[in-house]
Amino acid sequence: MHIYEHDACMHYAYYFDNFIFIIRIAAPGGPPQKVKARATGAHIVKVTWKPPRKDLQFGLIKGYYVGYKEVGSKDTFIYKTLNAKGGENFIEETQLTDLKKFTEYAIIVQAFNAKGAGPPSDQVTVKTLQNDPPGSPVLKVTFTNQTAIGLSWDQTETENPVQGYILYHKWDMGDWQETELSATEMEYALNDLKCGSRYQFYVTAFNSVGRGVPSDILRTKTDGRAPVAPDKQSMLTINQTSAAVHLDAWHDGGCPLTSFAVRYRQQRQQVWNLVTEGGPEGAGRSHDRLRNQVILDDLIPGTWYRLQVTAHNEAGSTDAEYTFVTNPISPDSAPVYPVNDDSAQELPLYLDINILVPAAVSLAVVIALVILVCVIMYKRNAQDTNQT
Asked: Does the N-terminal or the C-terminal CB of the chain have fewer CB atoms within 10 Å?
């Protein structure tokens, strides 16, 4: 019997006459490719690479050994083991930490599979930096008003020099903006902000190495809130054929009013009459140029109306609804369709044309069917009588 052995990427045996062929798994036959090393701080180096050639992997790559040592040192390589558990999702990179400051290192990478480790890559050298990026500042609010927010920060870590700061801010509905500041500027006020609005902030320090770890995001708001609606007595002055809507009775909530939208209708009608003062996005006139009041003309004496007013400022909008009755022509005249003054009441169902018409049609159909049934029954009874 003859036995032949061969190293390859599989492990199996087969028989042919008196021959046994055995093929064994082999360790990777080639080194990792495109090994690169880059210092990212005084004590950290980032290493990246690509897997060995496909035809030299000889099975599934289980992981990598990343070796490093000081250049010129007689010490052996120190190895960091990375298991490629993610398979195709594994990313060929790692960080070597706790290195010496401003020191040159030699780095190699080896792949391994179930059989063992393959050949190492060529050595690459890299020198750690003289300094690290600055640490994370601590950010806090110093003041707020309707259009500005003041900030200050502390740089607690002093080992690494700071060349400046970058302050990031955004309105809750906007995009991030950045402001670059010098190393001596440890406070800053952002002006021309939206009144009564929420903002987010964070700051990061930088030096010749790069930007450091940013501070935690700080959330706060400018002073002010959405408009506050007045009561009906302050809001309306009513006579027989008109009503004055006093827009200046609204409280601005600490943020200037930018616009109003007014609409009204008779209590028994469905269609609203729209009166707009400015636009809801601040396209209207400023508060001192807005009309103090809106006059609703051509009203019917002794009639109930419903009024809706929406007030806008930069902090938001507020809706308010009122019911009122115009003065009657004479003191003895009763208002048309009176309603409870505290809550709006719709037209009674039995007077609503949207209900009356379908109900009348349905009733007519039912009556017609009853008459038809009666006629049929009468004729049938008459025929039965004649037959007897």
From this structure: C
